[in-house]
Amino acid sequence: MQITVVGSGYVGLVSGACFADVGHSVTCVDLDEAKVAALSAGHVPFYEPGLEPMVAKNIKAGRLSFSADMTQPVANADAVLIAVGTPTRRGDGRAELAYVHAAARAVAKHVRNFTVVITKSTVPVGTGDQVEDMIRQTNPAADIAVVSNPEFLRQGNAIEDFRHPDRIIVGINEARARPVIKQLYHPIIAGRNLLIFTSRRSAELTKYAANAFLAMKVSFINEIADLCENTGADVRDVALGLGLDPRIGPKFLVPGPGYGGSCFPKDTMALAQTGRDNASPLKLVESTIAVNEHRKQAMAQRIIELCGGDVDGKKIAVLGLAFKPNTDDLREASSIAIINALQLAGAKIAAFDPQGTTPATTILRDVEYCDDPYAVAVDAECLVLVTEWDIFGSLEFKRLHKLMATPRIVDLRNMFDRAELESLGFQYRGIGLPQRA
Ligand code: NAD
C-alpha cells in the first residue's frame, strides 16, 4: 500500500514509521523543511524511545521517505493520513483547525485516483464533514472518502501503543473506505478483533470523551489526595483499594502535580467548548479543567510552605521538566506553571531533566539548567521532584543531603521512601500522605 502522512510530529512520524515497519510504503510530508531534511538523514527531532532506529531502518529498507512537497506523494497514495497539530485556539479554548484545513485543501489539489483521507489529528465532532466539503470545493473531481481514525498512542510509549493498540476506532460514512482501512491495519491487528467501525462523528467524539475521562480520573484522585492529607488517610491505600474494583481500574489513579502534555489540557478545553456550542454543558469536564489549573498553583504553594512560607532569594532545585517521563515534550507541563509561580515569589530555580532541558530553554527563562541531579541540588533550600523519571529512583540521598543548603524534599509523585528520607534528616512532603504525629 502507498501511504502518505501529512504532518511529521509525534503522531505522524510514529504512524508513518510503524506503517513502514509492517511493510507499507510510506512518505511523510511536513511543511517544516528543516525537519524533513533531518528526518531524511535519519535524525528524529524529538525524543521518543525506539523511534530513531525504526526510522533509520525503514529509510534504509526503502519503505519510508520524507518530503516537503506533497504533490507526488498524495497523487500516488491509496490513503492519506492527516496528522497535523490541533492546538488550542487563542482566546476561546476551541481547537485550532487552521492546520487541518490547510492540509485538506493541499491534499485536494494533488489527489488523483480514489483516495481515503484519514484524519488522525484530534478534531472536534463535525470536522470530518468540513474536511470533506473543503476537498470537494477545492477539487470537485476529487474521488475521496474522508475517515476519522483518532490516535490513542501515548508519548514515551508510542511505538508499543501503535503496534499493539487495544482498539482502533474508525469513523466512516462511506462503505468503500472500509476495505482500504482493513488493508492498512491488517499487519497491525494480526487477526485480532480490534477494528471498531462507527460513524465519523462518533469516532471524533470518542477521542475527546476518552481523554476527558482520563483527565477527570487524574483530577479526581488529586482531590481525594488533598482530602487524605486533611483527614489522616493515605491516598496510596485509597487508590489501591479503588483501583482493584474492575469497574474503576488502577490506571490514572496516581496523584501528582496535575496533568499536562499536548493532549489533555487542550482536548478538555476543546470538548468543554463543544459542549457549550451544542447546548450540552459538560460540567464534569469544566470542573476537571478548573481543578487541574488550581492544582499547579497549589503545588507551588506547597513548596513555599515547606520552605517556611517564603522563597524570596532562595534556590529551589527541580527534578524533571517534561510533562511525563520518557519524552522531551514540555507542552503544558506542570513544571512550567510551578516554576513560574515560584519565580514570581522570588525563588531562584535550578533544574535537571534527563531529556527536557534543551526544549525547556525556549520556554522557561532565568533557570539554571544542570547536567545531573546532584549539580542541581547544590545550595538548594528545597528539592522538588516533578517528573518521575526512572533514574530518580536511584538517587543517593546522603550525597544530596550534604550538597543542599537545607535538606527538604517535595515529592510531587510519591516516588521516594519517606521513612528513609526522614531518617536521613530531610523534611519531606509527598502527596496525599497523612501528616506525621
Ligand atoms: P506536532 O505538533 O508534534 O506535529 C504536527 C506536525 O504537522 C508539525 O511537524 C508541523 O510542521 C506539521 N504540519 C502542520 N501543518 C502542516 C501542513 N499543512 N502540511 C504538512 N505538515 C504540516 O503534533 P502531534 O503531537 O503529532 O499531534 C498531532 C495531532 O495528533 C493533534 O491533533 C494531537 O491532538 C493528536 N494526538 C497527539 C498525541 C500525542 O501524544 N502527541 C496523541 C494522540 C493524538
Automatic annotation (TrEMBL):
<dbReference type="InterPro" id="IPR017476">
    <property type="entry name" value="UDP-Glc/GDP-Man"/>
</dbReference>
<dbReference type="InterPro" id="IPR014026">
    <property type="entry name" value="UDP-Glc/GDP-Man_DH_dimer"/>
</dbReference>
<keyword id="KW-0520">NAD</keyword>
<dbReference type="Pfam" id="PF03721">
    <property type="entry name" value="UDPG_MGDP_dh_N"/>
</dbReference>
<dbReference type="InterPro" id="IPR001732">
    <property type="entry name" value="UDP-Glc/GDP-Man_DH_N"/>
</dbReference>
<dbReference type="Pfam" id="PF00984">
    <property type="entry name" value="UDPG_MGDP_dh"/>
</dbReference>
<feature type="domain" description="UDP-glucose/GDP-mannose dehydrogenase C-terminal">
    <location>
        <begin position="317"/>
        <end position="418"/>
    </location>
</feature>
<dbReference type="InterPro" id="IPR036220">
    <property type="entry name" value="UDP-Glc/GDP-Man_DH_C_sf"/>
</dbReference>
<keyword id="KW-0560">Oxidoreductase</keyword>
<comment type="pathway">
    <text>Nucleotide-sugar biosynthesis; UDP-alpha-D-glucuronate biosynthesis; UDP-alpha-D-glucuronate from UDP-alpha-D-glucose: step 1/1.</text>
</comment>
<dbReference type="InterPro" id="IPR036291">
    <property type="entry name" value="NAD(P)-bd_dom_sf"/>
</dbReference>
<comment type="similarity">
    <text>Belongs to the UDP-glucose/GDP-mannose dehydrogenase family.</text>
</comment>
<dbReference type="InterPro" id="IPR008927">
    <property type="entry name" value="6-PGluconate_DH-like_C_sf"/>
</dbReference>
<protein>
    <recommendedName>
        <fullName>UDP-glucose 6-dehydrogenase</fullName>
        <ecNumber>1.1.1.22</ecNumber>
    </recommendedName>
</protein>
<dbReference type="Pfam" id="PF03720">
    <property type="entry name" value="UDPG_MGDP_dh_C"/>
</dbReference>
<dbReference type="InterPro" id="IPR014027">
    <property type="entry name" value="UDP-Glc/GDP-Man_DH_C"/>
</dbReference>
<dbReference type="InterPro" id="IPR028357">
    <property type="entry name" value="UDPglc_DH_bac"/>
</dbReference>
